[in-house]
Task: structure prediction
Amino acid sequence: MDWRSTAGAIASLGKIGPRFSGDFLGGSMPRYFFHVYHDGLSQLDEEGEELSDRQAAWHEATIMTGKIIQDIDGKLRPGKDWRMEVTDEFAQPLYAINVSAKKMA
Result:
């Protein structure tokens, strides 16, 4: 599976495990978006996930990153970096996870 099809599955990866939706203690939960950038291409998460807080968004990002990186399966090449960015519902960047591949010799 190449990274594009894996990145396209971000929404389904984000739905693993229980999720709250709708009202949470009388108000809506914030929505977080998980965007992937690799080899000059962007896979923007247009749906996002409702999560309780920023810490939950970070946790979700680490889980999703692990699964996506595992599926890259030998396709990451030196000089071709991979990045996931987490933004809030106002498009404010919150976190970035970078994977950098370099040829050392």
Observations:
- Residues 3-12+29-99 form one domain.
- Confidence is low (pLDDT under 50) at residues 1-24.
- The chain has one domain: 3-12+29-99.
